[in-house]
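Hi everyone,

Forwarding the result from last night's run.
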Amino acid sequence: MTKENLIEIEKYLKGKDLSSAVFAEVYDHFVMQISESMVKSEISFQEAFLQTKINWQNELEMVKADLFSFKRIAKIEKGILQDRFKKMMMIAFLSSVIMGTIFYFNENVYLCFQGALIAMHLLFLMYHFIFRKMSFSEYQKMIFHPLLLRNLLLMLIILPLTNIIFSTTKNLWEFPLNHMFITFSVVLQIQLFYFRAKKINVLLV
């Protein structure tokens, strides 16, 4: 293949808005498959390129990134993101269960751990702003990240129900579930900051 051919492949894949890691992998596959088709089938670059695009059309189809997102990304990217989101939510869920349990047995110990999590969150935030790893507009997008919006929606549904069920308790602070939601959100944001620092795609931009 010529340099112009490689540029054409690169231009096509860049139009799919793939993250750098996925782009590099798919690009290598495209080059390899096109080269093999040109040699084995004795066809031109354009024919082999078209054949490869057809073979990849399902994986590179542009779909809605998430129920709470208007961004459209390639299906292959969505699959990777959804797997990453599941792991992030599992870590946040386990953390919230642990923190809810700690709050139930010892409120003072809970406050120490929760303070440490919030401090970690603020340190990540300062790091991103001081070293210009994230713009303010990107931070705004993080606040309305699909994972956080799901948690907010769930909280708006569940909290009124718990207030009705446990109507004898007027102080919402006494519900461990409230603190579990707080922990869930904070741990999710910490993970989002971490992946952003590592330049790993989490649907921020």
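The helical segments are 3-14, 20-40, 45-55, 75-105, 107-130, 136-143, 146-165, 176-197.

Cheers,
N.
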